[in-house]
Amino acid sequence: MPIKQELFLEAGVHIGTKIKTNDMKKYIFRRRDDGLYILDLRKSAERLISAAKLMGRYKPEELLVIASRIYSSNPATKFSKLTGVPIARGRFIPGTMTNMAYAGFKEPRLIFVCDPKGEREAISEAASNGVPVIALCDTDNETKFIDLVIPINNKGRRSLALIFYVLAREISLAQGRIKSYEEFGSDIKDFEQGMAEEGEEAAEGEGDTGDEAAAEAPKASEDKEKESPAKESSDEVKKASS
Questions:
Q1: Is a pLDDT exceeding 50 seen at residue 229?
Q2: pTM of the model
């Protein structure tokens, strides 16, 4: 494991909710006396590293991280600055990936979702375009249209900070920005602190730009022929999730 197991435990990466969906049963280790389900930390770590290595094969501009909540948008912002991977913070605008007439239109080859419940529109649009989806999934999530599930606590501030720290470090290594872990200059606390004010302002302000009408207009790309890169990306994700 590229990071000590103790750090995962301290960050509460393995602590789920009191709800268990059928989709997430196979990722659950046990149920605590207080009713909380505990995720299998081995599977969490393996999937997280697989996702990082997969993302590292793409150019930063070919990826898109969806981070609608403050606790995810803060560390995602730090992650974006270190790797160059674009992020969509705040409420996801319908049509972002399907309406070419929308000013904020994006055409990623792979998306990374932090909260499948709050970011269902992004998952739906990616699925309609044949774009693979990697998602952080807690015990209460459903995994429909998600190609690579990372079973993890996707609600905790420390958990999300650690997740994006690992992703940034692994992707930086894959991209050749660093040659070893020792060269990675950021600390986990950099993802947990320092971005709070900026992240909160962005989360509150983004998504209310007045462009919703344009985004929800007739989707110009609905009949667009699916290109081969999407299929190639999907095949890569399937290999990583196996």
A1: no
A2: 0.81
